[in-house]
Design brief:
TIM Barrel, globular, 34% helix, 2 domains, binds magnesium ion, Enolase-like, domain 1, alpha/beta, four-stranded antiparallel β-sheet, 373 residues, binds 2-succinylbenzoate, 13 strands
Length: 373
């Protein structure tokens, strides 16, 4: 294909309620979308990508304004210069730029969306999906009180969510987990996410979580603490799942061989794109390591693409793939729905959803026309 135009859209979307993790509280999602116009041998198409960088570099080094800059100055020029552009080579064309996996992932996603729209193939089919629906888990932020936590969890369980993930932090761990287990019983699929807030010195506290039959504990230690995660794994019964630490298939291979991860949270943005995400899925599956699809408070665009990824056979645990309504009163695409604990995988060509023009304009705070042929 030949790229004929590139536009970046920076959005500010209000959240239905504040989302608090060990690294901060968000009131809005500062989303970044990449729109690519392309000429293909089957005509003109538009492809959309979503960059999952957050407003501030607190979860990972990337942040929205930096992603706009690196995309505009280095990533787009590199793909424009490529001859015979195909999605499978975007990663290759961008390999000289160090880091910035979320920005690269968004560019690759937009090219892949355009390519699949031209080919008439859905994201799920292309990636190798084997399910029409995927189980829908919900990530529950840190609340002001145990009482409020129980109320919020009850609401999600009543809606039908298949799995609950509680965000934890030092001082907010054993008690909320105990309360949720006690209130809702042993059948609820329950897990926790520390977002790197603990150290190995906290292992006595973390070991107390073994009493609550959790599916896993996600990223207890810092991003670079692979060796320490392996030591912690020897001290806990609860399986350790890595999120922040797995930034590529190489770091997934390191984590698996060190015994630092019994489970991996695969987030396409964090690892540089959907294609690298599939490579991590394949590697983990070959090692008997479970994976599940993480979330980054995506709009309907990324949310739908994540559901497609989660339909691959190695995604054996419910993902952080909730309905649009979990975060947004109004999404910028047709909303993603959750029915009886499942989200349907879109089957129309490409990602299967695109921003609705009126809503894109309503929530857009800036537009950057990066390229026009
Ligand atoms: O650690 O999984 C995480 C949101 C933003 C940044 C990091 C994380 C999260 C979530 C939300 O837990 C997952 C979702 O989109 O539902
Ligand atoms: Mg996480």
């Amino acid at each position: 294909m030949m790229i004929t135009s590139v536009r970046l859209h920076r959005l500010s979307m209000p959240l239905v309620s504040p989302f608090t993790t060990s690294f901060g509280t968000e009131h809005t999602r500062e989303a970044l979308l990449v729109e690519i116009g392309a000429e293909t041998d089957r005509g003109e198409v538009t492809g959309w990508g979503e960059c999952v960088a957050m407003e501030e570099p607190l979860y990972s080094p990337e942040y929205v304004d930096g992603s706009i800059e690196v995309t505009r100055r280095w990533l787009i020029p590199a793909v424009i210069a490529a001859e015979d552009l195909v999605a499978e080579r975007v990663g290759h064309h961008l390999r000289h730029v160090v880091g910035h996996p979320m920005a690269k992932a968004a560019v690759e996603m937009a090219v892949l969306d355009a390519q699949l729209r031209a080919a008439g193939q859905s994201f799920g089919d292309y990636l190798g999906g084997v399910r029409r629906t995927v189980p829908s888990g919900v990530s529950v932020g840190i609340q002001d009180s145990i009482e409020q936590t129980l109320q919020v969890v009850e609401g999600y369980l009543d809606e039908g969510y298949a799995r609950i993930k509680l965000k934890i932090a030092p001082g907010w761990d054993v008690e909320p987990v105990r309360a949720v287990r006690h209130e809702f019983g042993d059948d609820v699929l329950l897990q926790v996410d520390a977002n790197a807030a603990y150290t190995l010195l906290d292992s006595p506290t973390l070991r107390r979580l073994d009493d609550f039959d959790l599916l896993l504990i996600e990223q207890p230690l810092a991003e670079n603490d692979l060796r320490q995660h392996a030591i912690l794994a020897g001290r806990l019964q609860t399986p350790i799942c890595l999120d922040e630490s797995v930034v590529s298939v190489v770091s997934a291979a390191d984590a698996i061989s060190l015994g630092a991860a019994e489970v991996i949270n695969v987030k396409p943005g964090r690892v540089g794109g959907y294609l690298e995400a599939v490579r991590i899925h394949d590697l983990a599956r070959a090692h008997g390591i479970a994976v599940w699809c993480g979330g980054m408070v995506e709009t309907g665009l990324g949310r739908s693409a994540n559901a497609a990824l989660a339909s691959l056979p190695g995604f054996v645990l419910p993902g952080d793939i909730s309905a649009s309504s979990r975060f947004y009163a109004e999404d910028i695409t047709e909303p993603v729905e959750m029915v009886a604990g499942e989200v349907a995988v879109d089957t129309t060509p490409g990602v299967g959803r695109a921003p609705l023009p009126d809503l894109l304009e309503k929530y857009r705070v800036s537009r950057h026309d990066v390229y026009r042929r």
